[in-house]
Amino acid sequence: MKLEGRVTGPGSSEFDRSWQALEPSLDSRKLVIDLRGVIHMDSDARRLLAEIHRKTGAEFLADTPMTKYFAEEARREPEKE
Questions:
Q1: What are the tens digits of pLDDT across the range 14-60?
Q2: 19 Cβ partners below 8 Å, 6+ apart?
Q3: What residues make up the domain containing 25?
Q4: Number of structural domains, the chain?
Q5: Residue from 27, 38, 53 nearest 2 by CA
Q6: What is the model's pTM?
Q7: Residue whose C-alpha is closest to residue 49's, from 9, 12, 10, 81
Q8: How far is 15 from 35, CA to CA, in rounded Å?
Q9: What are phi and psi of 30, to 5 degrees?
Q10: Which of 3, 17, 32, 45 is 20 to 30 A distant from 10 in Cα terms?
Q11: Which residues have C-beta within 8 Å of that of residue 31, sequence separation ≥ 6?
Q12: Number of neighbours of residue 49 by Cβ within 10 angstroms
């Protein structure tokens, strides 16, 4: 899965729709999410990225400090309440 540009508002919703369509077909295949073209992600998109990582252990491709941050944030375990 490749994300590009600003993943906000409608882009965030499209990311969610694309994930919902892709998820049933993954089976045991490894998911790779390419963040290298992303210039911004809103909180909804970042939450979805973390959810996808929790469900699949997805690998992230990141090449800038910002995309590396998004990937690292998604890999973190949710805080215990």
A1: 999 999 999 999 988 899 999 999 999 999 999 999 999 999 999 99
A2: 1, 48, 52
A3: 2-75
A4: 1
A5: 38
A6: 0.89
A7: 12
A8: 12
A9: -80, 130
A10: 32
A11: 1, 22, 52, 56, 57, 58, 59
A12: 25
CATH number of the domain enclosing 37: 3.30.750.24
79 has pLDDT over 80: no
Looking at residue 13, what is its pLDDT? 94
Decide if 33 is inside a domain. yes
> What is the token pair recorded at 35?
């963040």
In a domain, 81, yes or no: no
Q: What's the Cα-to-Cα distance from 67 to each of 39, 49, 54, 62, 71, rounded to whole Å?
A: 8, 12, 18, 5, 6
For residue 25, what is the enclosing H or E element?
A: none
Flag whether 48 is in a domain: yes
